[in-house]
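Re: beginner question about structure tokens

> Can someone show what the tokenized structure looks like for a real chain? I only ever see the sequence side.

Sure, here's an example I had lying around. Input first:
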Amino acid sequence: MKLSGRDLARLIAKPEADRLGVLLYGADPMRVAIQRQDLLKSLVGKTAEEEMRLTRIPGSDLRSDPARLNDAIKARGFFPGPCAVFVEDATDAAAPAILAAMQDWQAGDATLVIAAGALKPSSKLRKAFESHNNAYAAPIYDDPMDRAEIERRLNEADLPAPDRNAMGELETLASALDPGDMRQLIEKLSLYKLDDASPITPDDIAAVAPASTEAALDEILHIVAEGRASAIGPLMSRLAAQGQGGVAICIALTRHFKALYAAASDPKGPQAGIAAIRPPVFWKNRDRMIRQAQAWGVEKLSRALSELVQTDLTLRSSQRAPDRAVIERALIRLAMLARARG
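And the corresponding structure tokens:
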């Protein structure tokens, strides 16, 4: 049987001990590894390996020793509790051994957990688990943590519930970070909130969130949008020292001004427009961008976007002027436009 993401989450929360096994597969090894760790911990507990109730077998070993898997599934340990056999990095080359073990499996044998990379629909492993009435096949997609998974991770870490703004920030971070980094952030948050039962706030998250390597780039977007032309030169020197090219700056600025244009043209007003942007705008920037959208207006933002398109074309052409000079002049023109009337 094939499991959806929600079905897998329910299985991890409440494992079914009488199931033959689960095949986890996906293109991102980190995402597959996280789901596998969660499933095994829920299925056999944290101490299963020390108590010899969990057996690990590399998938490559099954080609030379196919009987090893069946022996491991049938083995009985000295300690009480459920048992599992985990086959890591499995491919279709290990399929004959895995399919033979599935055929011999009986109630009371160890649960089989298989972790694999991306498998085609024609894969023997996929077909075997998808068609089996007592086994699951669970594809792991490259999706960010959703709200339900974030809440589950917070609960597992014994963290208090976040307030509304804090949950929004966690969802924003989840869309930007891979699952492994997101788990580390939640672990840091649990240490930061140790003995503090108050709700998680955006300030708590900001204290443990990874520092942006693009702080100067983020700041120049606001400087230009706020018409602070005198601050452009020094910040451009910082960006040049960081290795930021003119095209990258132009792309980031275009994205920022498109967000402002969407906010300014929203029929419900800039505040509703900023709230509707996806991925969500970081909470500390929302009021700032609302003010920028109100100050610019739709007409001037349209002119700014036209200027940025032309600058992008110039930067990508065979022009002889240095990239920094081209982009810096464009930024100054935009900053002056921000201060112009009408």
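Each token stands for a local structural state, so reading them left to right follows the chain. The chain is about 60% helix and 10% strand.
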